[in-house]
Amino acid sequence: MQSWGLTDPGCVRKQNQDSYRIEQLDRGNLLCIVCDGMGGAKSGNIASSLAVDVFVEEVRRCWKPVMEQDKVDQMLRSAVKLANFTVYDQSRQFEEFDGMGTTLVAVMVRGRKTTIVNVGDSRAYHVGKGGIRQVTKDHSLVQMMVDRGDLTPEVAKSYPGKNFITRAIGTETTVLCDIFHLDVGKGDYLLLLNNDTEVISPGFIEEMMGYLQRPDAGVVGAKLYFADHLVQHAGILVGVRGALAHANQDFSAKREGYLARAVRSGNFSAVTGACQMVRRDVFEQVGGYNEEFAVGFNDADFCLRVWGAGYRAIFTPYAELYHYEFTSRGREEANEEKLRRWKREQALFMQRWPEFFLTGDPWLGPNLSAESEYFSL
User: Fold this and answer.
1) Which pTM value belongs to this model?
2) Which helix (H) or strand (E) holds 51?
């Protein structure tokens, strides 16, 4: 699971009144919290950092690896209550803290289950295949007017006093929080990426995902280069030279090749699993990777099953990465045991997909040589 945080003071104040924390509770369980010190209140930065510290400490104190959902909700409510009391108590004890307060939004991820707790107008969003959706609901005067029908959502965006909130941490002795539940662990797409790759194109994920918006697209592969920037992968041809071959391997980056296939997106029978994106529903439909292919041929076998299910395997040259192939596992030729394993997997692959070795790769064509990865006669 990946998580990250970023905060900025914005264009109005020099002092950053935001505080956040990302806590890995244990394997597969994550806590994220953001507090925004109330802009017009004294010591908003103190309120936000204090609320974060108390909330996280209380969750850690109560946390157990196995908890029913109602216990999780109870724990989060307790953490909000304690954070609120602590900030309120500090604001009453010290004159310089009088009136301070903060918003709070926290997300607890437990496997596929996500629980969100919210006070104020800091927000949690869910980004998925259907777009970006706001999960939390603002505790603000404007939101109350929208709920009553006094304002439309569009008018509310620019309505005077839109930042006036009706609930906050630390401004009263008690505060109510909202809790939301989501099943967000099951993503829409899977990115399979080797540990011996290095990104060249910063937007490679978006580029690959774009093709998967097509209903007939099942899996997308990137353009990969060796360390010397010669092409390592630009699509896979099946059955060439008795096994698999990477089309146009060792080309320079801009060399086009036959029908410009090295520099244009297009269909192939397979794309490498070193950098491969697939729709989750397609992955599950075909049963994922076959573990009988422990190292070699598994990506091609997977792609051919995707084709068999009615979806396309697509190569895009606009998602570029270096692939320092064999850095992690070494070459088969240099190790007798690995070479035996490769030959065993090759035989299994040929047994599973004999038509490609009898009639050739359909994306190569019957008039081109099955002994060359360069679309030769």
Assistant:
1) 0.55
2) helix 44-62
b vs e for 164-200, b when ≥16 Cβ sit within 10 Å of the residue's Cβ?
ebebbbbbeeebebebeebebeeeebbebbbeebeeb
Most distant CA pair in the chain: distance in Å?
A: 87
Nearest-5° Cα angle at 221, 216 to 225: 160
- Written as one letter, the residue type at 218 is G
How many C-beta atoms lie closer than 10 Å to residue 323's C-beta?
22
Q: Please name the residue that has the structure tokens 């051919």.
A: 304
Pairing of strands 104-110, 113-119: antiparallel
* The two structure tokens encoding residue 322: 């270096």
What integer is the mean pLDDT of 334-344? 78
User: What three-state secondary structure class fits 17?
Assistant: coil
Q: What mean pLDDT do residues 93-97 have? A: 87
Which residue from 84, 77, 89, 124 is spatially nearest to 105, judged by alpha carbons? 124
